[in-house]
Every structure is written in structure tokens, then in C-alpha cells.
Write a structure and sequence with these properties.
Largest sheet: 12 strands, mixed
Strand content: 35-45%
Strand order of the largest sheet: 3-2-6-7-17-14-13-12-11-8-18-19
Helix content: under 10%
Number of strands: 32
Radius of gyration: 31 Å
Structural class: mainly beta
Length: 460
């Protein structure tokens, strides 16, 4: 089984989550904000100014990222530990309002307040509404910094500090979440932009699609973020510039979320997640530090099982199982089987019978569907009888979005049963009253992969 690109937990009734932690480079933010909890439209994660799972109705980063026992089995995560003073942005072309080929990186240092030690993100899809959560922690809290999070669709985005320049590029629909900190470090503005390339309302290339609030505030909102107002335990290895290891000093931990289901955006399958810092609030300010990792939301898989031994004239039974292990709903585009034909329509080989399918127009995250059918082996079929099923699903109901594909192979060994019988007498001439002795010899001439022949009858 392979793929080309991208459940609820019954104990706590939480939607599927797709998450990862990046501990790379230096990067981050913030100042001081009162901790608290509020009801927003992004309530799958405890956006309460700490990373420890406390409430019964929501996850927190220690659970999401698998740093506590009993992490959910359906959780996808990656942890990349890096630290302070590694790869950073360089040159004046590294700005949010310039395309990615203009960005450059190098090995070096940034101001301690801009130095990200860890960055993390998660995707939830409950009730058909995709929600993105993000966070980061920084090396020092002695100063304000601006932080941003790019959710990029191009999975090739990367930077080799030896080559300096970034690879990959922006795609229409890339998301940028910016938090600016003023007035002593309070979160003053939280904005969500989408990359439009040209004709945008912000520096031509970006469109402002939403503004948020501090998560500690009351009300129902689609975007919010917060920082820790007091020292908080760090579930993962963390050593700040000042203070004890294993603890986030006040203003060192940042987290937020956005409900894309209520915004005019289509993020598709995603590809990469990049956290960044700036000293200035302007989107055309030079970027300082970054943390970069994979963030693919689509993951279609397929498995094909069936009988492994058969012969011409017999029927082989097959089962095709398609699973959406990603974080968004995927829509059926095609299901092609080299033996049976088009399983999506279906348009089938005339030798196929007993066809049954539970695969509808779409698949929710962590759901599977099955297709079963029988095939009558033909005399001219190759031995072994190899066959492949290939599925293609799309992130858009109109099949105009990102595609994810998978394929699975199956082989049936075809045996050729056969026997050879000879009968010989002990004499060729006799008369009435004589006894004639006969010898009957039965030879199994079946192919080597045939099962043992079972005696049925001998008639003479």
C-alpha cells in the first residue's frame, strides 16, 4: 500500500487531530497576558496559556504531541528538537509580502527574544469544520517580538543554509496568521491573511480574511491567541535564558487557533508549516527566525486482499479497503482496478460478479469504506495473476482541489491440476479360465504450486 502526497476518541468525544511539534531554530514572540479560558469557535484545544491537559472537554499540547502517557492512537505527530542559534532568515528579501524564492536562510543567531525553541501545530476536523491550532515557545522573554505562522500548500518548501535560498513557492490560498505585540507585550492584533498573489488588499499579495482576539476574553470568535501570564510547566525539554529548565517563564509560551470552516478560505491538503518572528509589526518587515516542518492534511490509503491460490474456472474473492487517515474530508475521484475495471462508476469486467461497495462520494477523517467482488479466472490469464487497484481522492467536492492517491497490488498463484493414468496387463494373450493381472498407474502431473490432489473415485 502507498500514497502519493495527505475519529473521534470515544473516551472524551474529541474530533480527530493531526499534529506535530517542531523544536527548531529560534523564533518567537510575546509579552505578558492574563491567563484564562473562554468559549470560542475553536474549542478542541485548551487555549489557556499553558501546555498541560487539564479540562475534560479539550486536548492540550502535552496530549496532542504525545508527551504524556495515554496519548490517542489516532494521533499523528512529529517532534524535531533543535534549540537556540541555528538556521535563521537573512537578507532583505525575507519578508511576508514577497514570494518564497526571495527568502534566504543562514546559520546564525537572532536576538534572544526572537529565538524560537519549539513550534507546533494541529488540525482538527469536527462537524465538517477544519480548525488549525498553532503555538511556539521562545528562548527569552525580556522584550516583545511579533510572531507569525504560515500554513503552506507547497510541500517542497525548504532551505539549505549552505545554498542560502529557499526552494518552493507560495500557492493561492496559503494562510498566514500574525500576532503583533504592543503596549508592554499585550496581544493587540491577531490577523489571518490568505496569499492571493496579486490584487490583494494588503501589499497587493495578501487578503485580510479575519481578525482575532485574546483567547482569555469573552465571546464567540473564529480566531484567538494567548500567551502565558505566569510561569507554566513545559511538557517537553525546554531551557529558557533565565529561569529553571522545564518551565516556561511568563510571556514565553504562545498558542492560538483559527476556525477555517467559518472563513472564506480553502487550504486544501496543506504541505508545510512555518513559524516566524519579526521585530516590526509591518508585513514588509524583514523576518528573523523560523521553524519549518511538514503539515500535510490529506492521507488516503488503500489495501487489496483476496485468495492467493486458484485455477482457471474457479472464482477469486477480493476486498478493497480505502481509508482516509488525514484531517479533512476527501472526495472520491476515481477507483481503477486492472482486473475488475472501474470500481467507482462501476464499469466492470464481464467476468466480475457479486460486486458490492460502501464507498460513497466522500470519506470523513479516519473513516474507511470497502469494495468486494468475485472474479472468475480465465484460461488465458497470466500466472501469477497480478492486479493493482489505484484510488484518487480530492480535497474539493467539485474535484478541483488537491489530489491524493494510493495504490495496492495483489497476486494470485494459478495452479494447473493434472493426472496421467496408464493400465497394463501381465499378458497380451489369454483364454477362458486364465487369470490376467493388471497394473493401473496414476501420476500427479499438476504444476508444482498445486495443492495435493484428493481421491474421488476410480471406475474400471
Amino acid at each position: 500500500m502507498g500514497h502519493s502526497r495527505a475519529t473521534e476518541r470515544s473516551a472524551r468525544s474529541k474530533p480527530f487531530r493531526f499534529a506535530f511539534l517542531l523544536s527548531m531554530l529560534g523564533l518567537l514572540l510575546f509579552g505578558f497576558q492574563l491567563e484564562g479560558a473562554a468559549t470560542h469557535n475553536i474549542d478542541d484545544v485548551e487555549l489557556d496559556g499553558n501546555a498541560v491537559d487539564e479540562a475534560a472537554a479539550a486536548d492540550d499540547w502535552d496530549t496532542i504531541l504525545g508527551f504524556v502517557a495515554g496519548a490517542p492512537s489516532d494521533l499523528k505527530n512529529v517532534f524535531i528538537a533543535d534549540g537556540s542559534g541555528t538556521t535563521i532568515f537573512t537578507t532583505g528579501g525575507s519578508k511576508d509580502d514577497l514570494d518564497i524564492p526571495n527568502w534566504q536562510c543562514t546559520n546564525g543567531n537572532v536576538p534572544d527574544k526572537d529565538d524560537i525553541l519549539n513550534a507546533y501545530a494541529a488540525a482538527y476536523n469536527g462537524s465538517g469544520s477544519l480548525k488549525l491550532y498553532f503555538g511556539a515557545d521562545r528562548f527569552a522573554n525580556n522584550g516583545d517580538a511579533q510572531i507569525g505562522f504560515w500554513f503552506l500548500q507547497d510541500e517542497t518548501v525548504n532551505c539549505d543554509p549552505n545554498a542560502s535560498a529557499f526552494t518552493g513557492q507560495h500557492e493561492i490560498g496559503d494562510l498566514l496568521v500574525l500576532s503583533n505585540f504592543t503596549q508592554g507585550g499585550n496581544i493587540s492584533t491577531i490577523r489571518v491573511y490568505t496569499w492571493v498573489g496579486s490584487g490583494g488588499d494588503t501589499n497587493d499579495v495578501l487578503d485580510l480574511v479575519a481578525q482575532g482576539v485574546d483567547c482569555a476574553g469573552a465571546g464567540s470568535h473564529d480566531v484567538c491567541a494567548t500567551v502565558n501570564g505566569a510561569s507554566a510547566p513545559a511538557p517537553w525539554p525546554f531551557t529558557p535564558k533565565s529561569g529553571p529548565a522545564g518551565s516556561f517563564p511568563a510571556g514565553s509560551f504562545y498558542e492560538g487557533g483559527v476556525n477555517l470552516g467559518n472563513l472564506p478560505v480553502d487550504f486544501g491538503c496543506g504541505g508545510k508549516f512555518l513559524a516566524e518572528t519579526r521585530s516590526s509589526q509591518s508585513v514588509d518587515a524583514q523576518l528573523k527566525d523560523y521553524a519549518l516542518g511538514s503539515f500535510e492534511l490529506c492521507d488516503i490509503g488503500v489495501e487489496k486482499t483476496g485468495d492467493e491460490l486458484s485455477k482457471a474456472g474457479d472464482t477469486v474473492s477480493y476486498t478493497v479497503t480505502i481509508t482516509n487517515s488525514g484531517a479533512i474530508v476527501m472526495y472520491k475521484d476515481s477507483i481503477d482496478d486492472t482486473l475488475a475495471g472501474d470500481l467507482a462508476t462501476p464499469t466492470l469486467n464481464p467476468n466480475v460478479s457479486n460486486f458490492n461497495s460502501t464507498c460513497g462520494a466522500d470519506l470523513d477523517p479516519m473513516e474507511s469504506c470497502t469494495i468486494t467482488y468475485d472474479y472468475e479466472v480465465q484460461g488465458g490469464d497470466p500466472d501469477p495473476l497480478d492486479n493493482t487497484v489505484t484510488v484518487v481522492y480530492d480535497s474539493d467536492a467539485g474535484l478541483a482541489g488537491d489530489e491524493d492517491s494510493a495504490s495496492a497490488d495483489h497476486a494470485v498463484e494459478l495452479f494447473q491440476p493434472g493426472i496421467d493414468v496408464t493400465k497394463a496387463a501381465d499378458t497380451e494373450l489369454s483364454k477362458e479360465g486364465d487369470v490376467i493381472g493388471y497394473t493401473i498407474t496414476i501420476d500427479n502431473t499438476s504444476s508444482a504450486d498445486s495443492p495435493d490432489l484428493v481421491f474421488d473415485a476410480i471406475d474400471d
